[in-house]
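Quick illustration, no need to memorize.
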Amino acid sequence: MLGLIMTLFIIWLLWKLGIGIIKIIGFLFLVGLAFAFVSYLVLPILALVLVGSLFGFLLRA
C-alpha cells in the first residue's frame, strides 16, 4: 500500500513540475529495472562475497 501511495506521489510531483506522462512512465520503468537489477543480481553476489570471506576467515583462525 505504501508503494502505491509513493508511486502516486511521484506521478503527482512530476506532473506538477511539468513533466509529461510518457517521461513519468519511463522513469517508473527505469526505477523498476534498477530495483530488479539490485535485488536479483547485486544482493546474491554480495551474499557470496560475504560467505567466501567468512569461510576464509574461519580457515585462517
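Residues 53 and 59 are 10 Å apart (CA to CA).
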